[in-house]
Every structure is written in C-alpha cells, then in structure tokens.
Amino acid sequence: MAGVARLRSMFVDRFLNAITTYRLTLYYLIGLLFLAGFFSALGLLPYSAIDIAIDVCIAAIVSWVANWGFAKLFHAATNSESVFITALIIVCLMPIVPFANALFLAGACIVAMGSKYILTIQKQHIFNPAAVGIFAISLLAPNYSALWWMGTPIMMPFVVIGGFLLIRRIRRENMVYLFFTVYIVAFSIAFIIQGTFFTSLSTLAEILFFRSPIWFFGMIMLAEPITAPGRKRPQLAYASLIGVLVATQQMRFLPFSFTPEEALCIGNIAAYMMTPRHRLVLALQQKIQLTADTIQFIFRPANPLVFKPGQYMEWTLPHSKTDARGNRRYFSIASAPKPDTLAIAVKFYEQSSSYKTCLKNLEIGEEIIAAQLGGDFTIPRNVEKKKLVFIAGGIGITPYISMIEYIIQENKKCDTVLLYSMKNVNDSVFIDTLEKARVYGVNTIYTITDTTAVPADWEWNTGMINAAMIQKEIPDFTERTFYVSGPQLMVQALEKTLASMDISKKKIITDYFPGFAG
Question: Between 336 and which of 348, 393, 406, 451 could a Cys-Cys bridge form, CB atoms 3.0 to 4.6 Å apart?
C-alpha cells in the first residue's frame, strides 16, 4: 500500500510540476464554474447556467479592461492569467443575479484591479484583490455582501480536491491545515463559552463536511502566494490570525465579527508587517555561459536587496506569445547579498518554454521583474559554529552558491561537506567557487550519475547519492544537519534515505524545484 501511495504521489507531483501555479488556478476556477453551470442546468443548484455564464463574461471583460487601463496609467507589466483568476474568484463569491448584480460585480472587479496598482508599497500590492474588491463594495453598499455561493454540498468534493492540488503545487499545505485547525478550535471554544457546544456539533459538521465556503477560502484565497508571507513561521502566524478572525462570526458574545474577506484584508496587513515585500526592476548586466545548457544571468538592481543566502524570488518576464507555462518562474538567488548585483543560474532544454526562450535571448540592458522574496532554505546563523552537509542535485547547487559566496565574502571558517551530484562532468557549474571555498572549510565531494560517461581520470564517486556514499564520505554524519536541494523526486528519495540512517527530521532541511525544467 505504501508503494501505491508513493506512485500516486509521484504521478500527482509530475502533473503539478508540468503546469504553472497561475495556469493551474485558472483551470481549477474554470472547472468549478463549468461544473456549477452543469449542476444548475440539472436543477441541482438554485441558479441558472446562463446567469453564471453572464456573470463570468461581465467579470472577465470588466477586469481585463480595468487592468489594461491601470497598467497603461502606471506603466506596469501585466499578467492576464492573474486578471482572470481574480475575476473568476469574485464570480464565485458574489450573488448570481446578473442584471441586478452587474453594477456591484463590475465595481468589485474594478476595485480589485485597481488595488494591484494603487494599494501598493514599493509596487507590491498588499491586499488579496478579490477580497479587497468585495470588501470595498460592501462598504459602499452596506446591504450588499458576498454570498459565497460556491459553498454548497454538491460542489464540496471538487472544491477540496482541486484546492488540495493547488496548495500542494505552491507548498502551502501546513499553512492551510493550520488555518483549518485554528478555525475549528476557535469555533469550538466559542460554542463552549456560549454553552451550546454539544447542540452545535451539527453546525460544525455541516460547515466542515457539507459546505465548502471555508475550504474555498482557505485553499484559494488564504493560500494566494503574493499577499501571504513567503517564510514558514510568518505563514503559520498569518494562518492562525485569520483562523481566529473568521471564527468570530460564531462568537456571539463579541461586539464585533469579521467576514472572511474582511479577515483576509486584516491578515494581509499583518503579513506585510511581518515580512515586507520587494519588487525590483532589474537590468541585465552580464550573461555567462556556464555549460552548454546552463547560463548565469547577472542583474543590476536599482536599489539594494536585503536577503538571506539561499532564498528565492519570483521572476516575471513579460513577452509575446506566452505559452501554457506563463511568464513567471521561481529561481533561487545564486549570489551573496551584494548592493550592486543579483544573479540566477538557469538550465535550458531543447524544448524550452516561451519564458526560457525569451530569457535566453535577453540582451544586456533589458529588464526583468523580481518579486516575492521568500524561502526558509537559508544559511544558518553562526554557520561557522555548526557542522553541516549540503547535498545538491544538478541546478539545485544554486542556493548553495549564494551561501558559499556569503561565507567567502564574510571570511567565515566553517565545517561543511557539500555532496554535489551531476549527470556528467559537462554538467558541473561554479567549480571555481566550490574549489575556492575549501579554504573556508566547505569541502566539495563530487559524484557522476551517468556511469557510462565517466572520464578515465575521474577520482570522485559515481552513481546516485545514497546511504553508503554518505557514510563513506562523512564518517561523523550523525552529528551534522543536512540541507538537500534539487529535483523534487531526488529530494524526496534522500529524505527517506536520511530517515533510514536515523537522522532526525529536525536535522533535515529541504528545498526542491517544482517544474524548474520548463
């Protein structure tokens, strides 16, 4: 059974890695609305399929036009998928009464689009667009509010299954699960205080198992990456806060309560205070061909970026004829914190996406947008006082390069072993940096996985990194903390290997690159 579960997990992850988060979210919402229309046509939902279609058209057209106008006004790059995602979320929340509802629906869409350009700090929008759009309309028309009509028993399985795939894709499962846990606990405490806990169990069961608003809210709106924190601890605090705020709707003893959209807007403010966001326009300064298919891009930021070595950013590259993988990618920063440069290293394939094709052809002086600094796969404090193992697979070496350059830059002496796995010697990158780092206590051990292409003078290991190789090369491995970075399947396999070697989960820190090859 465990083997079957692993196969399912591998299949799911491969599917998710082949599609961008934006495209997955868009398809998910389109699928939900299509199903809602289908069930309405069968009389299983109290709406008209035509009315749902009309609302979708109104929201999509108004959102696109509004976004186009704001983008022109603020001279900003746009992402059409993001526009339609916001529009469809608003449709899922607003009452389905097209002609009576049209003005409010259009107003919510316009405010949502405007919030991306106006309610910003350093060109990063603070609020979830759909939430702030609906909240603004409720202020202007107090008798009008979100209906969350997607929360019906028949839609529940589809909301949950699709939502699970989405949060797995963006690696926000823990944040979302904690939100549900805090909400349930706060909900239960409220009923205990009110003396109605046992009589209200059916209400709790109905909300959790037969109605989907809280699931749609948690998996789609709460988990939205741009306005949620990018690091784990702030994510958990964010989820807990919003869980309590949403539960106030059941706390009759309080003089106030918050709707989900109000709670999310408050949470967005708290998220920004916990982890201020950055949005940089970077000009390409230099391109370095590291291997036949790997290029290092060095950019010049207009303003210095403060980050921890090992973190990543979302890189947006607007271009024409964008394919299904979209115009955004997550790449680890492959340089130490420096005031004048910021680097990434990217591997290219014969059938590259339109994004990577455009990136590969980027000319010196041309610009790219970097935002959403995040990640907990970072160099530890007092690195010189800790015994570490870095395990890198292929282009998974990039976050370590940031850490190692930082060690060199700060002249730190440490005790770190780097196991670097590559397909063949032609795939090796940053060798000069790795060899230079030996003086600082970072000792690199290489292995080639393609055993048919081993050079005659090769003195290092061959084959995949496994328990035997770790035990041979690192006799004191039980005393060390392990960092693992690379393709997802490799990372997952090494997690199991390290666990079988009695390495505590607390001493295993992982990072992987979902969909990095496109």
Answer: 406
Cβ density class 75-97: b for 16+ within 10 Å, e for less: ebebbbbbbbbbbbbbbbbbbbb
**pLDDT for residue 397:** 94
Domains detected in the chain: 8-274 (no CATH), 279-374 (2.40.30.10), 383-512 (3.40.50.80)
Task: Kindly state the tokens that stand for 224.
Answer: 């939205």
**Can you point out the beta strands (E) in 375-499?**
387-393, 415-422, 442-448, 461-462, 481-486
pLDDT at 2 over 70: no
pLDDT in tens, 53-90: 999 999 999 999 999 999 999 887 777 889 999 999 99
- For the ranges 53-67, 89-103, 487-501, the lowest mean pLDDT is seen at 89-103
Alpha carbons within 13 angstroms on the beta-carbon side of residue 348 total 21
For 174-226, what is each residue's pLDDT tens digit? Answer: 999 999 999 989 888 887 887 776 666 776 677 666 777 889 999 999 998 88
Chain position carrying tokens 């890189």: 315
Quote the CA–CA distance of 165 and 24 in Å, as a whole number. Answer: 9
Q: Is the Cβ–Cβ distance between 507 and 499 less than 8 Å?
A: no
User: For residue 356, which of 374, 371, 368 has the smallest C-alpha distance?
Assistant: 368
Q: Comparing C-alpha atoms, which of 445, 448, 443, 404 is closest to residue 427?
A: 448
Residue burial 280-300, b: 16+ Cβ < 10 Å; e: rest: bbbebbeeeebeebbbbbbbe
The CA distance from 416 to 396, in Å, is: 17
Residue type, 496: K
Token pair for 441: 């206590």
Q: Which long-range contacts (CB under 8 A, 24 or more apart) does 267-273 make?
A: 267/222, 267/238, 267/241, 267/242, 268/126, 268/127, 268/128, 268/131, 268/132, 268/227, 269/126, 269/127, 270/237, 270/238, 270/241, 271/227, 271/228, 271/229, 271/234, 271/238, 272/121, 272/126
Please check whether residue 484 is in contact with residue 509, taking contact to mean a CB–CB distance below 8 angstroms. yes
Would strands 328-332 and 294-301 be described as parallel, antiparallel, or unpaired? Answer: unpaired
Structure tokens at 246: 């949403």
Output DSSP code: residue 512: E
